[in-house]
Amino acid sequence: MIRADLAVVGIAELATPEGRAARTGSDLDRLRIVRDAAVACHQGRIAFVGTERDFRREVELEPGGRVVDAGAGTALPGFVDAHTHLAFAGWRESEFDERLRGKTYSEIAARGGGILSTVASTRAVSREALTDLIRDRLDTMLALGTTTAEVKSGYGLCLEDEVKQLEAARFAASDHPLRVVPTFLGAHAVPPEHRDSRGDYVDIVALRMIPRVARLGLARYADVFVDAHAFSLTEARRVLESAREHGLGLRVHADQLADDGAATLAAELGAASADHLEFASDEGLEAMARAGTCGVLLPAATFFLMMERRPPGRRLVDAGIPVAVATDFNPGSSPTESMQAAMLFATLWGGLTVDEAITGATLNAAHSLGLAGETGTLEVGKRADLVVHAVPNRYHLVYRFGVPRVRTVVAAGRVVVEDGQLV
Fold first, then answer.
1. DSSP labels for 149-163?
2. Closest CA relative to residue 207, chosen from 190, 226, 186, 224
């Protein structure tokens, strides 16, 4: 008999990708579907996935074990959000109103708004206050079904405040059920004090910030924003090569607002992911496919910025690139913690099917963070990260848009959300 200390029964439909590596092409929407399903967990790991009938025959609940009734809901793996900027202070709702009145994102940034506005707010708060802000956002994400999330710095833009952001993320995650994967993004923008000496700032990022962050173990990845208003390919290469030399994985904000050649750079350097990609060239996507670099779709940002160019979901799939879906949660271009919203835009705006979006939001996202062997699917041996949605099947997650219906969240084998409320 299989021993278990937690069981989830009464599942009308269980839907999960399978495997320990990303899915591509036609395999992206291939899910295992189990009707009348049950899941059993033991010591934080999945011990059984199958029909409830087989569960009754094969699984023995330990004394004191718990049974959770899914109420004829739908079970999916916990969402993995592979691109967030949640370590910030201050919102930018006034800029949103400006854009509705005709201002462009670039115009707002040119007058000191945009990223630099958030930098000023984030620099002004203490590490303790920032820790509290991050913890509150992790709570919100967990209640919406996210059990793993990448968290970037990038709103400090000096050594002290970049370290502050990453330390705050570490402290917030230390006692939180949602697992955090930290990313250093000191090359997010050139700070005001280096507007006339950008080369000096690139030196600081490459020669001072990255070595310190790596030595302190504050990040698993380093990222860089390649854009006419941020960093050139040459500058990005220098930052990324320094990161690689210091043992950090690589991620790239690539070709969001123009074809800057960043997708090709990401592939050349063996980056784990290139994110955005709205304007990526065919050559850049072909290079990513050859290198196995994940393409992270951020369709909520594309929609929120009212861009004419749609997210390149189908282009990435057709190119054979491992496609992930993420929120890009940040105060300026995607102020949402909801992976369900990201999936909605990935389907209606980015051209993915529901099943492709599910794989992109779970297994492929986990793969982009180096965690596909650990989470992102409901399979025996993996970390028990499971969400029960109060809908009859998986299609309702996007079909009935705008209303989260998370009933139960299990993270590492522990019930952390019950009846939609944090435990």
1. EEEE--S--SHHHHH
2. 186
CA nearest neighbour of 337 among 37, 88, 127: 88
The 3-state secondary structure of 275-329, one letter per residue: EECCCCCHHHHHHHHHHCCEEEECHHHHHHCCCCCCCCHHHHHHCCCCEEECCCE
C-alpha distances (whole Å) from 6 to each of 261, 370, 371 are 49, 27, 23
Select 79-368's CATH number: 3.20.20.140, 1.20.1250.20, 3.40.50.2300, 3.40.1080.10: 3.20.20.140
% of the chain at pLDDT higher than 70: 100
Give the count of alpha carbons within 13 A of 63, CB side only: 0
Question: CA 390, CA 420: separation in Å to the nearest integer?
Answer: 9
- Provide mean pLDDT across the span 368-375: 98
For residue 402, is pLDDT > 90? no
Q: Which fold has domain 2-77+376-422?
A: Urease, subunit C; domain 1 (2.30.40)
Identity of the amino acid at 357 = A
| Extents of the domains making up the chain | 2-77+376-422, 79-368
The answer to whether residue 129 scores a pLDDT higher than 90 is yes
| Bridge partners, 152 (sequence order) | 183
**Rounded mean pLDDT, 342-371:** 98
User: pTM surpassing 0.70?
Assistant: yes
> What would the two tokens of residue 294 be?
């994940």
Closest to 417 measured CA to CA, from 142, 148, 19, 155: 142
Instruction: Assess whether pLDDT exceeds 80 at residue 52.
Output: yes
* Average pLDDT score, the chain: 97
- pLDDT band of residue 395 (cuts 50, 70, 90) is very high
Q: How far apart are CA 122 and CA 175, in angstroms?
A: 23
Please give the structure tokens belonging to residue 120. Answer: 């000023």
Residues 339, 344, 350, 352: is their CA dihedral positive or negative?
positive
- Radius of gyration, alpha carbons of the chain: 21
